[in-house]
Amino acid sequence: MDYLMTLAADPTVWAALGALIAMEVVLGIDNLIFISILTNKLPEEQRSRGRKIGIGLALFLRLALLGTVAIIVQLTAPIFSVFGKAFSWRDLILIVGGLFLVWKATVEIHHKVDPDHGPDVFDGGRAATVTFGGVIFQILLLDLVFSIDSIITAVGMTDHIPVMVIAVLVSVLVMLLAADPLALFIERNPTIVMLALGFLLMIGGMLIAEGFGAHVPKGYIYAAMAFSAMVEALNMLSRRAMRRKGD
């Protein structure tokens, strides 16, 4: 208890908490977009439950990883080298997660561009089917990737586990509150879906690049996303004005 009171009285801890919450919320946007797009493919009565389970998994994973933070930090230690480039477990997780995200976004874009595509060429020629368990499994995979990256970043910002826990709880609460409105917004605006899939492609590419050691400042990525979202918002206002004029 004395430890927590000492932390509460330290201004630098509050500054670190604010920065960490902001970072967790921003990183959570990637996860939330992916969850929204996947769960919108489920039957309507299962969508909200799927989003809550997906976000609950993110919370569980991040809190569980915080409990093993000493092990998580060691994931950055090199385990082998290829042509002079050392790879760690974190690098491999980012590469695999990035490849999965690129693959999934490509499949979804293919489905949007050609909705009557017949057998799914990205799935061995079988007809595409969406199941609740399959969606949750895919969410779990990306939750794991984003959670590990989030925790490693958090460790670099503060040494205090209680601060990390509070930041994770606040960010997941924000995700929980924003999940249904964001998913509904994406569903009602088809062009937003394509924009969101483009974001996921870009994020997947960034994860792969970071896995291979190419540091990509996340500020550039999120600035590009914000600019694209602003342009699409202007397009939506323009289309709405044209419809009103037509009426």
Helices and strands in order, then pairings?
Elements: H1 2-8, H2 11-39, H3 44-67, H4 69-74, E1 78-82, E2 85-88, H5 89-113, H6 132-157, H7 161-188, H8 190-211, H9 218-246
Antiparallel strand pairs: 1-2
Helix pairs in contact: 2-3, 2-6, 2-7, 2-8, 3-6, 3-7, 5-6, 5-8, 7-8, 8-9
Structure description:
The protein is mainly alpha-helical and 247 residues long. The chain has one domain. The chain has helices spanning 2-8, 11-39, 44-67, 69-74, 89-113, 132-157, 161-188, 190-211, 218-246; strands at residues 78-82, 85-88. The chain has a two-stranded antiparallel sheet. It is globular, with a radius of gyration of 20 Å.
List keywords for this structure.
247 residues; mainly alpha; two-stranded antiparallel ribbon; 9 helices; globular
